[in-house]
Each structure stands twice: as C-alpha cells, then as structure tokens.
Amino acid sequence: ISSSSSSLGMLGWSLRSSSESETDDDDAALTWLDPTAPGSPAAGLDFVDYLVEAGALCTASTSFPRMGAAAGGLQACALGGGHRVLHVGCGDGALTKMLASKGLQVIGVDADISAGIKRGLRCVAFDGAPLTAGSLSTVAGSLKEPADAVLVYTGAAAGAAAGQGFSSAECLSAAALQDYRSVLKPGSGCVCVEVPLSRGSSAEEVQAQLQAAGYAVDCLNVLPAAGGQQRLRVVGRPQ
Known about the structure:
Blueprint: E1 6-8, E2 14-16, H1 18-23, H2 26-29, H3 45-54, E3 84-88, H4 94-101, E4 105-110, H5 114-118, E5 123-125, H6 137-142, E6 149-153, H7 156-160, H8 168-171, H9 174-181, E7 190-196, H10 203-212, E8 215-223, E9 231-238
Parallel strand pairs: 3-4, 3-6, 4-5, 6-7
Antiparallel strand pairs: 1-2, 7-9, 8-9
C-alpha cells in the first residue's frame, strides 16, 4: 500500500498526514478534518446549532440515527414535532437536506430549484425576482400551515461569488420582510438570517430597519469573517 500526504477518512473527508501536522503550527495540527472536502458537512450547521440551542428551531426524532456534530448531525430538541421551515436561498440543497434529516419539515426556496429536486427535496421557486414584493406568493399558496421559521444562510464562499446567496441588504429589505409575513405563523414565527453584512451597512441600521418593519429583534450580532467582510446574524419576529 503506497502512502501519500493526504488520504480520505471514513466519512470521505480529507485527512492530513502526521508529517504535515508536525510541520504546521499547533492550532492547524489539531484540525484533521478538511471542511471544504467533498462529503464534508454542509456549510451553515453552526448557525443551525445556534438556532436550536436558542429555541428558534425545534428539531425532532427521525427514522434513522445520525452520528452527531462531527458527522454533520445536529442535537435533537426534546420538544414534540419538528418546526416547519422555509429555507430561502436553498441553492444546491445540501443544507436543506441536512435540516430535513433532523425532522424539520423543510421547503427549499430559490430561483433555480433543480438541484434540490434532484436531492428528493420539496422545493418551490420564487415568483419573479427573489425577495421582491410577492416573490413568495406561490410558496404561501402551497403551505397547508404557516411556517414556524424562515431561514436564510449565505456561506462565506457563496458570498464571495457574484450572484450566489443573499446579502443583508437583499434579504432584510422592506419588501423581503413584508413577504416573510405572508408565510410565517402569526405571533410566533421567526426570521433567522446569517449572511454577509452589506458594505456601508451597520448593525444599528439593520436593527432600525427591522423595527420600522414591525419586527421584534431577538438576536442581532455582527460576526468577524475571514477575508475581511463581516457577517450578520439576526433572529427577528414580526409583531
């Protein structure tokens, strides 16, 4: 058996050799799993973990077990059935499928939903331009019950690529905030967002915009990010 500088672990993630770890700094030497490798967990699981711990999302038992956070799983909430979630900007459906695997009743929403459908997910396309007035009309009409949460997540890689994902200005615009109301459960539904903070914007401006649209703000944090662009994490509830 020939040896090489990297190999695949049991989950298909790239592992670095011991010789590599010996030459790297101490922090890097502890990072055996490469999160960018094929088969690694979907981006956004740390955000979803945060939402579960904060009580914004409630997962449920599923018909098959998962191995926990290291394998991309989430800790299940002890409360009843899983929340109904609209994953806005579902893209290739990787994070959407992970949400579904934890008992969340999830619908992916995007301009192009072909990748999500190929994964066997329930997906609905935007009406017209994404996150403009009425863009969730078909989604609203397809729901038997209003959603418990709208989730919008744009990873760092997608945020750096033109035309992928949403910025804070796009997904927290007045039109988008009004559209979310049409699909959320009155009184308890929430909008959960983690996206790049639009350049020239600030947490204070975002909070004022949410409040002007009639939203209570449960959480609003600006997170540092590699590459210089800050990220915004928001949980808001229409009143």
